Amino acid sequence: MNFKEYIDKPEKFTPGHRTCSGCGIPTVVRAVLAATDNPIVVSNATGCLEVSTTMNPFTNWNVSYIHNAFENAAATLSGVEAAYRSLKKQGKIKQDIKFVAFGGDGGTYDIGLQSLSGTLERGHDIVYVCYDNEGYMNTGGQRSSASPFGSSTTTDPAGKVRSGKQEFKKSFTDIAAAHNIPYVAQASIGNWIDMIKKAEKAFAVEGPAVLNILSPCILFWKIPTDSAVQLSKLAYETNFWPLFEVEDGNYKLNHNPKNRKPIEEWMKPQGRFKHLLGDKKLIKKIQDHVDESFEKLKARCGVE
Fold this sequence. Notes:
Layout: H1 3-7, H2 25-33, E1 40-45, H3 48-53, E2 64-68, H4 73-89, E3 98-104, H5 106-110, H6 113-122, E4 127-132, H7 172-177, E5 183-188, H8 192-204, E6 209-214, H9 218-221, H10 228-237, E7 244-247, E8 250-253, H11 263-267, H12 280-301
Parallel strand pairs: 1-2, 1-3, 3-4, 4-6, 5-6
Antiparallel strand pairs: 5-7, 7-8
Helix pairs in contact: 2-8, 4-6
């Protein structure tokens, strides 16, 4: 299927939502929902996506939709999927229905990790999508375990004592893959075709699948409203956010930059890193971490 055929599909997620101008989240949702023609049940953890698309009495969802608290989107959807399997076995449902949960990094890396881990371990046939904007953006830009080293957040701001967050970003995609589930992938709104192909694979497998998709936050990354896609491309061209997938435990690298850009190029446009620019020691520390992580990924993928 070509790009235009995806665009021409009936809208499952309609315009008129109230996300910030330039936000990447709607791009994530539209791509994922376009990746299957089956009926869909959506579970949505509390966060930017939920509050901006369900303003009573309006909704942007043209599919069955369940809103959950931060911590239980995966748990609730696993119960719905289990009920569906029972009803289908009894012959009370004939349709093949797909189940997808959406959550931000706060509701995935942190608060929702326990219920998500249980869902993956039990083998429920659902797709879980994390739109990773690297912080608790819905509630004020607080630090999450997805926030990068050195970034300034409202709960770990840069100042005279500390230069922002002191810990490196959690490797959630690898954590999901460690559950030995059929499919896990890391994607970016900077590569729409790669993202939707991975969503298609996620819906096609039997059992759990996880998509971790980088989605820049305009407000708390302190970036121009037209820069989310370009920054997402820089994220994988610098190897900060590699594009890869794990199928039945086998790692595959989807993009290996021929001319890898320095990490500083990704950081420069973002106001949350402005205090680090010019600090060669800290920039080198971040660059070294990115390079070491990418070499480990290449080794897993069998790439020299």
